[in-house]
C-alpha cells in the first residue's frame, strides 16, 4: 500500500461534491474524455515508461548483484504496472458511472 499526503483543499466539500454522474459512458463528452486522458491516462503512461527505463539492481543466480534486470524481470515489472493502471482506470470509470 502506498500513502500520499494530500492538501486539505483536495478533499474539501467543494471538490468532493463537484462531479456529475452519467448513466452510460456514451454520455461523456469529448471534453470529458480529453480531461480523462490528460489527468489519468497520460500520467500513468509516463510513470510506466519511466519505470520500464529504470535499471534495477537484481541478484543473479550466484547471489551477486547485477546492474540490470533480466528480460523476465522487466516483463514482470511492466505487467505489474499495467495491471495497477487497469485497476485505477476501472475504479475511475466505476466511480464516474
Largest sheet: 2 strands, antiparallel
Strand order of the largest sheet: 1-2
Query: What does the average pLDDT come to?
Result: 77
H/E series, N to C?
HHEEH
Shape: elongated
Weakly predicted, low-confidence segments: none
State the total count of DSSP E strands: 2
Residues in helix, %: 55-70%
Rg from C-alpha positions? 19 Å
Range of strand content: under 5%
How many helical elements? 3
Kindly report how far apart the N and C termini lie: 25 Å
Structural class: mainly alpha
Salient structural properties:
single chain, mainly alpha, two-stranded antiparallel ribbon, 3 helices, 2 strands, 97 residues
Briefly summarize what is shown.
With 97 residues, the protein is mainly α. It is built from three helices and two strands; from the N terminus they run ααββα.
Structural notes for this entry:
The chain is mainly alpha-helical. 56% of the residues lie in helices and 4% in strands. It contains three helices and two strands; from the N terminus they run ααββα. It has a two-stranded antiparallel ribbon. A hairpin with a 5-residue loop joins strand 1 (58-59) and strand 2. Helix 2 (30-53) packs antiparallel against helix 3 (71-96). The longest helix has 26 residues, at 71-96.
Write the layout of secondary structure elements.
Blueprint: H1 13-16, H2 30-53, E1 58-59, E2 65-66, H3 71-96
Antiparallel strand pairs: 1-2
Helix pairs in contact: 2-3
